[in-house]
User: Fold this.
Amino acid sequence: MIQAKVVHIITKMELGGAQQNTLFTAAHLDPDRFQVHLLAGPGGDLFDDAAAFCRFRLVPDLVREVRPLRDLKAFLQIKKILQAIKAGQPPAPVIVHTHSSKAGILGRLAARAAGMPVIIHSIHGYGFNDYQPAPVRWLYILLERLCSSLTSFFIAVSQANIDRGLSLGLFTPDRVRLIRSGIDIGRFKNPEVARAAMRRQLVVPQDAPVVIMVACLKPQKAPLDYVRVCSRIAERLPAAHFLLAGDGELRSAVEAELQISACAGRFHMLGWQRDIPSLLHASDILVLTSRWEGLPRVIPQAMSAGLPVVVTRADGSPEAVRQGQTGFVVEPGDIAGSAEKIIYLLENSAQARRMGLAAQVLVDEFDICKMVAAQEALYLEQVEKIS
Assistant:
């Protein structure tokens, strides 16, 4: 018997962790208990995957950029869809579950206007950060405070995001729960393409030290910092190769930075990639140069693949790393410090392998099936409150 209709709302189906986990959740919630719907704006590499979902609804004017007229239209479109879902068969309470900053704001406002009894918001990192101009940052914080009053419960992927929300008064401890952003651990332990075959595809020598970063090319991930780190490494280790899997608004800036770097001939820009497990197994170290985060899934993905990591101290990232045991955490923007740690691991391959094996032992809390089970439990708790 259907106990609730669950409506996931996300801004854009790009190839990111929040989108992939939302799709997985939508596909794996118990169909005997939940009727699942998915709403998203146009575009993104995962759009066709979402459109194949039987209860997918396009919100034509839901876009990431701030566009007041389109935002108003998106609000009305979401409200209308939610009202239709509520009135549809079978009769059941509706849980609206929003993701990302834009969909989180418009989706929660529309859900309240449509009279939805339960509104849950997942924090995959905040829409505000310390690198924004103060007026912009405080505008986003005020909007989050407004929407907080409309929200039944919050999910956070990192304790750092919970602590930040508590300090800003966005919620109280009894209205938030830590549910890690999950991954398919088995898939990342056992890649489809073996290390040697993937290196041949990449045209990378079999014995070359290989560093990889997997990230959208946007300011949050600081990809120019990654190029600068790689340039320093290339000066010390002429055999090293560098992979960058991802694409985005800073691609041209990355390409320009490569022209003046020492690593240009050994730097492989791969664009968006689906087979991340095979790329990780073809590499020796994962690097992430982010300025702010939720808790990026690529860290536990690398842990599952047995790679040590060198990441920045960005929000939840340090929660997945045991300093000196499974990897290293450096300060955001510390080019020299990042390069030093990576060079150490590349020059001490036995130590790097031990750190990667230690990481594999600790990755269990990121199991994607545990994530879905935890969300199901939360949904049922919320339905019981309104019954």
